[in-house]
Amino acid sequence: MSIAQNLQHIKSTLPKHVTLVAVSKTKPISAILEAYHAGQRVFGENKIQEMVDKYDVLPNNIEWHMIGHVQKNKVKYMASFVSLIHGVDDYKLLEEINKQAKKNERIINCLLQIKIASEDSKFGMTAEEASGIIQSKAFSELKHVKIVGVMGMATFTDDQVQIKKEFTLLKFIFDGLKPLKTFNFQPETISMGMSGDYQLAIASGSTMVRLGSSIFGERNYN
Question: Which CATH architecture has domain 3-216?
Answer without folding.
Answer: Alpha-Beta Barrel (3.20)
